[in-house]
Batch of 2 targets.
Target 1
Amino acid sequence: MSLLDQTVRHDLGDGEWVELRSLSVGELRRMKADALAVAPLEGEEKVEAQGYELTQTALEKCIVSWSDEAPPTPENIARLPYKMTMKIADAIGLGGEEVPLEDGSASTAT
């Protein structure tokens, strides 16, 4: 395994796990820029829409495999329960604290 292909398995409790690869600084920068362009849905605040977009994209890029029988496709990642999504986002480095976006807003990483 090379430096660029390393993954880490994270225990999510109850026998569940997820194997993640790390994001590069460039990937995170591009994802933040893309999240800024997201238009909120009706009744949704812009920062909330940006946080969702950043979190969903990060999970799609980082999840290599998981304990579920279903493959980690974007559709299945979007179906993850909120609590599990936050655990994985925290393991990636997006959870726990707010992620500042380029416009000075903060993402709630939802």
Target 2
Amino acid sequence: MKLIILLLASNLFAIEPTAIYNIASHYTSKPATIVAISCVESQFGKYKGLHAAKGVCQLQPDTVRFIATKDSRLRWVNRCTDNQLSYVLQHNDYLNVMISSIAFKYRLERYGYKSAVMRHYKKGNLDYLRKVKESL
């Protein structure tokens, strides 16, 4: 029942940066970076995407499925179809920011800060890194 409620919860408007920071702070030591990523990716949810990447932090279902293999808190992802997962990423800001924060923490521990930021966007892009840094 909790999963159904989480799947149906949605935000129709842009999320406030302070809300993104508060969510991210539970899952990563660098919540300000998640705020900056969400600013660069979707202007805090104003543009949530109509293509493969979805939501506040523009996550792709394949990325989420990979991160779910690395973190047991995301094991519910395996019970979702691609359409369900895309819907959640598009419409549930809390889960989108949570998953992005968990993914960032994984990349941070594995690759270091600079690469963790760049890997959020097509596995490395210095222009993207610059934009995120400017948004901090």
